[in-house]
Every structure is written in C-alpha cells, then in structure tokens.
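Researcher: Quick one. three chains, 733 residues in total.
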Amino acid sequence: MKLSLLLIFLLFCIGFYGLCVGKTVIKSVFNLIIAQTALLLLFFQLAYTPNASPPILDHGTTGLWVDPYPQALMITTIVIGASITSLALMFSIKIYHHYGTLTWKKFMHKD
Amino acid sequence: MSRRFVAILVPFGLMILFVRFAQLIPELTTPQFTNAKDYIMERGYAETGAKNLVSAIYLDYRLFDSLFEAGILLITVVGIVFMAKSDEDVY
Amino acid sequence: MNAMPLLFIFLPIIIALLIYLIHRPWISVLGFLCQGFLSIALFFYTRFVQLTGAHDIIVGPWSKTIGVGLRNDSLSLSFLWLTLIFWWVLLAYIWSYRKEDYKFLFFFLFLEGTFMGLLQSNDLFNFFIFIDITTILSTILIIYEKDGFAIKSGVYYLLFNSVGMLFYQLGFIFLYSSMGTLNMSLLAERLALVPHSPLIRFSFLFFMVAVGVKSAVFPVYNWLPKAHSAAPSAISALLSGLLVKSGLYAFLRIRTLFAFDFMNEFFFFLGLFSALSGVAFALSQKDLKQILAYHTVSQIGLIVMGLSQPNTLLYLGGIAHLMNHALFKALLFLCAGIIIHHYQKRRVTEIRGVFHTMPFISVAMIIAMISITGGFLTNGYISKSLLTYGLAEKSGWIRLLYQIINLGTMTSFIKIAQIFFGPALPDRRQVNPGQWIAVGALSFACLAIPWIYEPLWAGFGVQLPHISLFTPQKFLILCLQGALGIGLVRWLTLKEPKMVRNIRHFQIGFGVSNGLMLFFLLLMIAAADLI
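Model:
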C-alpha cells in the first residue's frame, strides 16, 4: 500500500511538471488530466483496506468493506474534470482560428 | 531561458514535496474518526433502500452535489455550442 | 423559513433556464422580478437569522455526518446582500444592450444562483463544486465577445484556476482520510479535539494555496490583469467586485474551520508584498482597464493584510475595505466601460475631454477615484482609516510601506485623471437610463456610507469604532500625497524611464506561473516549519 501511494504521488508530480514546462495549450490540458487522474487514484487508494469487498451489500464475502464515500465524491470530480477539459479544448480551437498557433509563448504575449 | 530555469527548479521542489508526502503516509493510512463510513455501513440500506451503497450516497445523501454536477454539464454544453457558432450564423 | 437558502440558490437558476428556453422579448423582465422577490425574501430571512444566531440546515432528512449542509451566519448574510446589490446594479447597466441576448442572461443569472450557493455552503466538497461552477461560468462570460485577447485570457484563467483547485482537492483528500467527515461544523468540532499533527497542517497549507490562487495574492496573481481587462465591462465589474472576494470568503471560512494562528504573520507580509507589486505594475500600464485590474490586486493585498490578524482593529479594517472596495471598484469599471465604449480607445494617453463630453459619468468616476485613495466624505475613507489605525502598533517601516502604497495608488489615479481635461468630442452620447441608474446608485452608496456606516455594520453584528469625518492631519497627509503624486506623474510622463517600459512589457508565461504556484506552496511549508 505504501508503494502504491508513492507511485500515485509520483504520477501527480509528473503531471504537475508537465504543466510547468508544457509548450502548447494541448500539452497543458493533457497534463491537467494526468494530475486530476492521479488525485482520483490517490483518494481511492487511501480509502482501501486489504481483503475488502466492494461496497455492494450482497457481495460481502469477508466482513470488511471498502469506504464508499470517496467513490461517490470522485464520480462528481471526474465529471467536473471532463467539463473543464472539453471547454479548454473548444477554446484552443478558437485560439488556433485567431492566432494560427497553439504555442503559449507565441500567442500569449505577442498579439 | 526562463523555461530552462523552471525545468530545473520545479523537479527539486517536487522532490521536497514527495519526501514530505512519504513522511505523512503512516498518518494518512490510519484514520482517527471513521464516522461517515460506519454510518453508511449500518444505516445505508435501511434509510435509502439501495443495496449499492455508492448509489445511495450519490443519489440520496449527496443529491445536492449531483444536481450541480448536472448543472455543470448543462453549462458546458451550452457554452460549447455558443463558442462554436461563428459570427455570421443568424440565430 | 427553513428552505430559504435553497430559494436563494434555485430561483435565479430556474429563471435563467426559463429565459433561455422561452425566446420572447418579454421574458427578460423575469430577471428583475426575480431580483425583487429575492430582495424581499432576503430582508425577512436576515431578520430571522439575527434572532437565532446562525442558521444551519441539511439538504434532505439526513444526519450531519453524511448529508450536505448549508449555513448562514452574519458573514455570509453580508455577502448575500452585497451579491444582491451587485446583480441589481448590473442588470440595470446591461439592460439596454443585452435585453434580447438570452444566452448572456442565462449565464449571468445562473452565476447569481451558484454564487449564492457558494456563500452558504457548509460542506467542503460542495464548496469545491460551487467554486468550479463559478470558474467555468466566469470563463464563458469573459470570452463572451470572442475576440482574440478575450479568448487567450479566458483559457489562461480557466487552466490556472483548475490547477489551483487541484491543490484544494489534495487538501480535502488529506482531511477526509483522517477526520472521516466533510461537514464544516463537525470538522471544526473534531479539529478542536485533536492536536495539530503534520497532516492537518499540510491540508491547511494546500487549502491556502488554492485560496491564494482564487484571491490573486502575490506569486499567483497573473491571471487577474488579463482576465479582468479582457472581459466586457459589466463582467469586469462583477469579477473585480465580487468574484475575487469569493477567494477571500474561502480564506475566512477555512481559517475559522482550522482555528490556526501560526500563519498570521506570513499572510500579513504576503498581503503587504502583493499590494506593493500591484501598485508597481499599475504605475507602468497605459491601458485603462489594466490599470484598474492591477489596482484590484493591490487593494486585495491590503485586505489580506487586514484579514490576517483576527480579533484586532486591522481585521475590522480588512472586512470594511472588502465591502467598500466592491462598491467603488465596480463603479470604476462601469464608468471605464462607458468611456471606452464611447471613445473606442482604451489607452489613458489617448482619451481626452471626458469631463465636457459626459459630465455625470466623470463626476461619478471622480467620486470613485477619491474613494479608492481614501479621501474625505467617501466610504474608502472609513476603511482606509481603520487600516491605518490598525497598523499603528506595527513597526515604523511597515507603516512607511503602507503610506508608499497609498502614494502609489494616488499617483496612478492622478495619471488616469488626465483623461478629464481637454475639449469635448463632437458627437453626443445617447442617453442610456439603465447605465445612469446603475452608476448613480453606486456613487450615491459611496457618498452615503460614511454617514450611516455604524448602524449598517451593527446590523450585521460588527461594532466599528467611530471615526471622525475630518481631521486636519489626515488632510495634510492627503495634500502631501497629492502634491508628490502630481510630481511623480509629471516625471513619469515627461521622461518615461526605461524601467517603466520594461515593467510594462514584463510578462510571465503559463509554465512559469505554475512554477510560481509550487514556489508559493514551498514558501508556506518553509514558513510553517520555521514558526
């Protein structure tokens, strides 16, 4: 469990690093998705207990159940992330129509 | 030039953050209060009638959040349709 | 009376949906009807809450550990009144241009509903959802005119605030894993029982990064000048006046939740530094709306400076300045919008003769400019005096920096005042009654508040000390600052040193801003460890 938490946080760090050095808008959007996914996985992993069954009442083989609360919260977070991604991609299409480029350095400060 | 600067300093910062996170892990994995989980396990089926406890939370206990999530989807769709229309389209 | 918080949230949203579905010219009047109904409802609700202290409900018949809670106390009631006043004024302002623009009214009224939800929310995850809806709606409203500058500012705003909200998610993940609930009242009780472990400190710091991004404090304010100057004028007034205060509202709520005191000095210096940098950048700009946007950063720095020390006079000054800044900054942006629309130019050096072309608007703008510099007979005087008195026990060089910030503000507004001189333009402006009502109402509020502020604030449970309305030493200080300001403006415009041009063209890219956000987080971790 400890190793998986460290790997998930490493994924978040990779996503955040990509946000800091990404040259184009599309790369920034992708790295935002990676970071958000890493946070979802972190929340699921923290709510897990070993040898537990999913939180559906007929499936319980052992007496332990996984915490269902984070799973419900993260459904909403996935939808929010998808909405922000789709809006950002739509806006990047419009930026391409106006400026002809998607590189941050070329359109952000020049025109 | 500033990009090279950022590309060297940000991994250092992230490594510091990573080390602090690794120090916090033992505390993260031992919860002190587990009221929400115990409450749902005991009374989820009796109060909501759903055997799938995740649906019980998402559609009964936290319906307010789910309503606004649907609202976000509505806003996003209307926003994208609005952005996609070019200026010559008559409404 | 129990379902009143839900009425405030859902009525504007339902009206927005009706306006979007029914495309007839008469449907837009529903906006004003909705506002009137909400005002009456809020009046009765305020009296109800003041009888009982704070009003806590759960949406649905569930218990507090598991359901979504809404809570109203005097802080959120004052913000609700401010929201209502803003939407009245802005509906009057946009009425003649946007009466038939149903999509704009849809987004605008939906934003009112979700903002009222943000102010009443008592649950950390629900608060996160409302902040995200507000971000998405404001992005769409910023990009409404679809020109190039607006789209790139909107994309920067959306992506940067989403990265900030990533840290908010980390915060509540850590908090849920150890506390087991997300209801803010329950969390406050449990956090009072438990000693301050490193995990709880870390979640506090992550929340503070997200709040810092929303409130535009020093390292992470770069989205604000671009977004606030690219938006249409009514939306600029809304963003600068109200939506950036949602970050400060989150700051107050989360600080009350954790009841930590060890970061107060850090936030004090953070506010001071962001006020200084905001003024320094504002002095070098030439675009009217960008100057106003940088001044928003600077005044928010002063507010954060005030809010960082709870239970002192400085805190009262911070809250008073928050409310007053909303009013006069909205007035400035609305007047700037009218001027820019009439002249079709945005640079301060090119616009001339506003006083002869539109005397009423220029008088309103002069009132707002006196207000932001803390001149007499305006509401800015009250809040700036409270801040000055609150800083009286700090060391000498902090007070000197504060006076330098005020000097910089006055210099910048004297520089803007050059648009008033000169001959009138040949074409007369069409009289627009909605805009006159909006501007007139806000300037009346700016002038009337110094006389009635004590009963007004006492109605919300805050006792402000009495401030005399005229003191000779303050008059002398203001005259001295005015003289120095005029001298500085002449020096800046005549010689234009190269440093000013370099500051004006200094821009930070998206990647470097994210690096600055990480630097902000590490700075707070270092400050928390050393203290």
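Chain B touches chain C through 43 residues (CB under 8 Å).
Researcher: Thanks, that's what I needed.
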